[in-house]
User: Fold these one by one.
Assistant:
Number 1:
Amino acid sequence: MFTDTIELKDFEKMDPEYQDLLKRILAIQADCEIGGPHLYVEDMLPAAPTRVERLIVARTAAEEVDHYRKMARLAGELGVDLSPLLNRPNRERYVDAFRGRISTWEDYALFGFLIDRIGRYQLEEFVGGSYAPLDRILPDVLKEEEGHIDHGTNKTAELAAKGGEQKERVQKVLNYWYAKALDMFGKSQSRRSERYVHWRIKRRTNAEAREHYIREVNPLIEAMGLEVPDPTAERRFV
Amino acid sequence: MPMAPNTEAIDQHLKGFVQALHAAVNRAVPHVQDDPKLVDRAIEDCKEILDVVLEGNVSEWLK
């Protein structure tokens, strides 16, 4: 296990595998950060149920753009231009969950509840990691992600509490995003995932992080009176 | 390690967009109850700013 802490000035001296992995993870993180607004701004900013919710959508998008900016800056310092990610078509996003479009309030709520929570998991992987410039930007980014998760969780709970057809719609949307969420951790038997841990770019393997996520989110789903979806249904990566 | 071209300039542009978005939201929040027109204008401003960001026409920004 690698134990040093790396600054920008040390980067060029690092093993090529380390350089490649760090550049790759910054690109993926930036792609996910800007991929969020691409999913929901067009339909949800003008059409969220209330003015307050529209302002929350705008603030959330602003924060995600800023997270993208921070990741893109770190990558730029390493010689990688991530500006093409700004307008990459959704269908070409790195992670499957960002390849569609969010056009209902239920989807927006579930996205915050389940997918932004994974954003937090991915970011927590880097806390105390070997690349100090990345570690330093995390506290503010994580705090904002927590706000997005809380909003999504509260809205999902409110919608589920209405019961009847509304609750059925939430359950259907939950089933869709739950599979996308579990897939976001990647393959359990991933050699690359182990190399990230070796270099202390990440703290946990894909399988460990997915297991922690399931242990956190399943009780929340049950507390809302919803059914935890089959964790093997509609999955691409196990 | 040489920086990627325009890293600093793109970063500054994005910072400006983010600040403008927060300013629009902060201008509207105190008036959610008493001035719906002002709030709607702020939301429209946010949409316009975000459209420019997500269009990602960086070469235009850098002119």
Note: Chain B has three helices and no strands.
Number 2:
Amino acid sequence: MIRTLLVGAGVFVDALCEGLEAQGHAVAVVVPLRKPSAEVTPYDLDTPATGLNVAAGLLGSPNLVIHVPAVPEGPTDVIDQTVEEWIAACEAPLDEAVAVVRSVQPLLAGRSPTGGGRLVWVLPTTALSGSAGFVATGAACEGIRALAKGTAKQWGADGATTSVLLVDPGVFFAGCEAPLTEGMQDPALASLGRVGDPVSDLAPLLDLLADPRAAFTTGGTIVADGGTWMAL
Amino acid sequence: MTSNFTFLPTGPLLQGRVALVTGGASGVGLGMATAMARYGASVVLACLRTETGEPAAATLREAGLDVRCIRCDVTVTDDVFSAIATTVKEFGRLDCLIHNAVAGTFTGAGPITEASLDGWRMLVASSLRASFDCARAGHAALQKAKGSLVLLTSAAGMEGSAAIPLYGVVKAAQRTLAKGLAAEWGPDGIRVNSVAPLALTK
């Protein structure tokens, strides 16, 4: 059985949890402490370690750790952005991602190359390129993509691997009431005609990434958005 | 101007233009500032260490170039706003804002699990928060001049780095920050780009 630690909170994370359980995973959800007004020092980088270690203790040593950072769902122009909004959209997700790497390294590394643990970030496709209104989010997501690569390089000798899974903002922000942004692709016009379902479209892919058959891919980015991004 | 590179254009291409370079007291920043000044631009070296920046500016002035030094700690928001405001006040405009300064590159080096948190904080403050502050502080003047914002990034930000992974993180973030700002500010007539030199300077 695959043991999965899922770090994040919200409707999308709940749906991923449901989907992973449907794939047969034992899942523990770790909800990070996210300060609504982060001010100057957003996170203690080692804070998540406690929760992750408790969850790992209950679950057993995880094969898969998934981190879903919190990023704002609506657009804001940089010149209208407060420092607090900037921190929440850019610096806090990066802090959290670095904290997750630091916390889970002892849990994932040191396994055999064919059965190594895997750390996956799930991000919206706004990470692929900068978008007006999503400057801070795009920066954070691209930073996490570089973190995935740097981590993959450092963990490679231990057989532990990383991946980034990019999904359509329409599914990532499911449950949010704020509209995405004007001009965003109409999912009906995308290649597969929909933004995807966490349970049936994304959880199976995450399950595959945790499988030893996927152990040779590391540091890379997989786009699972039904073609919405390339259709833009 | 004289140059060892015959393919470079010559002449006062930037006459009447004003540029500010953070981290301009030495290394790549000073090199860029010098080149722009040689093309006729008025250049401000915005730097933390005026004991290095002032002599550098004086040397360039002795060579007939219009260069001055303003103290600016890019991790302090007020310093960034003040340096840009002073530049606009003294020169009347700002055509090019180059955020080149970074700190914490090597204190945040090594295994991520052992990286210094102070190094990480310094990287975020000097690269990301400072980019945000430069953008906010420079937007009005750059819009007026139909100018250009340049963020210095790194090859480490392209494919991640095993040796300096956290530096790679903030440099990657800056690259996409530039792309996003370019999209956001295009209608304002401001160009935003990032440059990733392979250079190791102090």
Note: Residues 76 and 97 of chain B are 17 Å apart (CA to CA).
Number 3:
Amino acid sequence: MIQKKICLLGAFAVGKTSLIKRFVESIFSDKYLTTIGVKINKKTLSVSGQDINLMIWDLEGEDDYTKINTSYLRGAAGYILVADGTRPETLNTALSIHTLVQDLLGNIPAVLAINKADIEDQWLISSESIDNIDKNLTVIKTSAKSGANVELLFSTLSHNMLPIEE
Amino acid sequence: MSATILENLYSELDIAVFATSENDLFTCITTPPSWLLHFYPTINKGSHLSQHELPDFLQHFVFDAEDHWQRKQKGQLKSGLWMEEGSAGSEYLLEATAILVDDDRLLLLNVIDQDHSNRQEKQLMRDNLLTQEKLELEVHRRTQQIREREEEIAIKLIAAAGKRDEETGAHIRRIGLYSAEMAKELSWPQLLIDDIKLAAPMHDIGKIGIPDNILQKPGRLTEAEFEIMKGHASIGGDMLAGSDIPMLNLASVIANGHHEKWDGTGYPNGLKAEEIPEAARIVAIVDVYDALVHKRVYKAAFPEAEALAIMDEMAINHLDPSLYRLFISIIDKIREIKDQNQDDEI
């Protein structure tokens, strides 16, 4: 079985842990409990007929006082950037982190999740901002609360991490 | 220091110490602290763990630790914090430290924040940050709402003032939007961009002081009539001057200066080149454009190419050539504004 380490990265309180809990345990809670350090979860999924064992690293979110511990990123095969659609600054944070990780790890597969799609009518991230994102970065609107596109998020990244068959 | 004192010290500090050698086994060399038993219920002093029996995070850290030991690096290598779930479902915040003592490769594990006070503090800090963010967004939203209301009121009033000649609401709105687009391209601060959007439409407000027989004359003005008409620039400038509101001061500057010409032959003050305030130079350009591409009582609307050909000539002496080049560089956006804000009657 293939094993791949992936990291979830983004500002604090964007829903990284909620997305993981939805994906791994199919549960959701409205209560915000901040992540300290990192927590590792595991899930196996099947992509293109192959089983992939995902080691999902849920990293503490960035705020004004806390930046990513880059040692946690070593060995990652891919990563998910997460932004909160109702907080425009979190998109900037996600894109800064993307640049940082690319500088560190090179052009490994990444997907950007814009979370809280269940309240898209309250989003403050404009369609224009989303359209202006580098086309090389796949953007998926997710909702950890409703589950919308959460499977798609992880399966898309997993698919992108599979070696290309010649 | 005796072994007993060391043992007691480790116990007090609640640290688990593992020693490893080249065979990848980790031997517990201290009496296991109680928290470690939640992960390894049968572990004792002297027990061995293979690398794959370590928590996933530690397996990852050991890779860096090996490097640290092999290079015989001085000092400690810390893993950073990680959360691990014990057998009873409770969570522990842990940290590992790799250290080389003489030639002994040691891995120290300890629990951080047993009483959760650190975690609670961080939770509170982040809750407060979130609240602050929400408040800031709400302030921004309400400020934006007030701004939009002011803008609408201003546009309606200016349009009412311009009812006597051909200053339609759409024309007024377009002048503001064109000017804001130019200001954005010039990297003006957002506050000033918002101000010019509202100030630029007021450029002809001084026409209130011009008699109907001159303002509404369909034919060419006589020299004397033109002199009176020229007065609208300083009338507008005076009307809008002397306010504490920066936007109105900007409007005053624009009203006063939008008929000045680059070569100094304009009015009311014969200012030349960069003596003319930039905002006035911007409005001069966009006002000419809008007048040329729209119908007036004295002329039909020019096709854009023809309008720009006329403006090309004007950019030699009358319009700021550099700003005119900028205007041309964003002509697609200008055209979009024109098309999306077509003339209507109020």
Note: Chain A has four helices and six strands.
